Amino acid sequence: AARAMRAAGVRPAFVDCNAVAPATVRASAEALAPTGADFVDVGIVGRGPGPGGERTRFYVSGAARQRVLELRVPEIELIDMGEEVGAASALKMAYSALNKGTDALFATVLVAAERLGVRPALMRELEGSQAEALKRMRVRVPFLGATAKRFAPEMAEIAATYASVGVTPEFHRGAEWLYALVAETPYAAETRATQPRERSLDEAVGVFAATLERWAAQ
Question: Taking the complete model, does pTM exceed 0.70, yes or no?
Answer without folding.
Answer: yes
